[in-house]
UniProtKB/TrEMBL annotation:
SMART domains: Elp3 (SM00729). PANTHER family: ENDONUCLEASE/EXONUCLEASE/PHOSPHATASE FAMILY DOMAIN-CONTAINING PROTEIN 1, TYPE II SECRETION SYSTEM PROTEIN K. InterPro entries: Aldolase_TIM, DNA_rSAM_put, Elp3/MiaA/NifB-like_rSAM, Endo/Exo/Phosphatase_dom_1, rSAM, rSAM_sf, RuvA_2-like. Keywords: Iron, Iron-sulfur, Metal-binding, S-adenosyl-L-methionine. Its cofactor is [4Fe-4S] cluster. It comes from the Bacteria. The keyword Cell membrane does not apply. GO terms for molecular function: catalytic activity; iron-sulfur cluster binding; metal ion binding. The keyword DNA damage does not apply. Pfam families: Radical_SAM. This is Putative DNA modification/repair radical SAM protein.
Amino acid sequence: MAQQTLRQKLEILADAAKYDASCASSGTARKNSLGGKGVGSTEGMGICHAYAPDGRCISLLKILLTNHCIFDCHYCINRKSSNVARARFTPQEVVDLTLSFYRRNYIEGLFLSSGIVKSANHTMDQLVEVARILREEHDFRGYIHLKTIPEADAEIIHQAGLYADRVSINVELPTDSGLTRLAPDKNARQIEGAMGRTKARIIEAKDERKRFRNAPRFAPAGQSTQMIVGADDANDTAIIGRASTLYTAFGLRRVYYSAFSPIPDASAVLPLKRPPLLREHRLYQSDWLMRFYGFAPQEVAQAAEADGNLPLDIDPKLAWALKFREHFPVDVNRAPKEMLLRVPGLGTKAVARILAVRRHRRLRLDDVARLTASIAKVRPFVCTIDWRPTLLTDRADLRGLLTPKSEQLELF
């Protein structure tokens, strides 16, 4: 068998990494190489397709160390029984690629994951070695996100957190039964145990930094996880509940959702087709409602249809408002922030602006219109000094009026 070139390895392992969605780089401590010291930065713009909450484009080299794997997870294209082209980088090759791409201004950081080869400890050692060489031998100050392996020893994962800005461990599936059926080599309690230890170490490191200026940082951008949507029979209500538990129990920065994608030579236990991509989008919207809009998980779940899934034709915030119309209309000149955040069509920035403006004068509907992209969505749920929706809020056909019209896109 001919030896693979570096480019051939990169083609295989960059493509294999596309199924991992948890590669945003928000929240890290800002570092730069001003003054001629060090290499890399966590600031600036790049060519990556990952975006921070503030809209910045984050350029990351996103690859696997290897797509060889001793596990046989049914949903994974890199499982040991899968008939795919295999490749494997050495730690030094990943380091050279990262530095080469950075110096060409292609990237500003590295997202590194891996299949499990030989053993969890061996693979985790290799991942940590990449980060160690970058940080210690090249003084690389760009962003590093390492996907850690829960089966590895706690001390190795601890080393990963000392070099990486963010670490993550995938819970893979929303339910324990789904994990047992589709990923028989993985254990839910083992995954949660590793996440719990990481949370404790992050808290400990922050406390040490308060008392000792030169105390080492530990995963300053926190930890995240990912769930696959649509590979098992878990509905959106179950997924929302699971995400809420993960945020509360492990202090996660993000829970990422990845719609299941059918793979070649798929196992018979998997669905024959992928779920709608819009379902993944609705779950992200529900995640935002819990994190930034003050919705409790059970309230978001109330927006779901009878089958436990969020509606696809309207966003979950609008679905909740339509189900609980007794809370509306809201007076934008008097209502507290908590109620304004529940008005469909009003985002956090719009609400902040309303609160600031109404300290000086009373708002009209035109004032609200300037703060939102769709005043039509807002009108049935608000009152201003010149507008009251009267019977509009209670119209039986209101959902149909507010549902976005489907449009056929044009190629030219």
